[in-house]
Amino acid sequence: MFTRFSFYGVLAVAFASVVTANAGEMAQKLPSVHVNEAGVGVGGYDPVAYFHDGVATPGVDAIRAEHEGVIYQFANNAHRDAFVADPAEYLPQYGGYCAFGVAAADDLFPTDPTAWKIVDGRLFLNLNKEIQQRWLADTDGFIQQADAKIDRVLAAKTATEK
Q1: What is the pTM of this model?
Q2: Contact predicate 104/145, CB 8 Å
Q3: Which of 37-41, 112-116, 152-156 shows the highest mean pLDDT?
Q4: Residues near 153 by Cβ (< 8 Å), separated by ≥ 6?
């Protein structure tokens, strides 16, 4: 019989095995906000579109805004203006790192902008749709865990990068 501890241990091991292919990418310096290879947040997707349109929408390179050193792209000027007016309203949780990874593996993993969900007005991204299905099995529980862990996980990653 699984205990709660062993269940999450099994999930963490399974999660780690899924992301092994991304190890080289993660070996790079990890900023507090996940950016793609071009230095763009949310993988170049429009963070406002998730809330206003209910879909993952690629941003346009020519429609950008910078927030705390990270570039974000938008599908249109109205979305960019909404973001500039209140970035915190639209930024993904956990710096755009995988919500399940923070909760179940105490680690930071990249995300697929099409593996997303808004919960209580907060945008959550996951590594991929397979991992998101695991996260959806106990969304509230994983959010509580990740909320409690994110500062420690970021601090630990920052410390190992020095």
Answers
A1: 0.82
A2: yes
A3: 112-116
A4: 102, 106, 107, 108
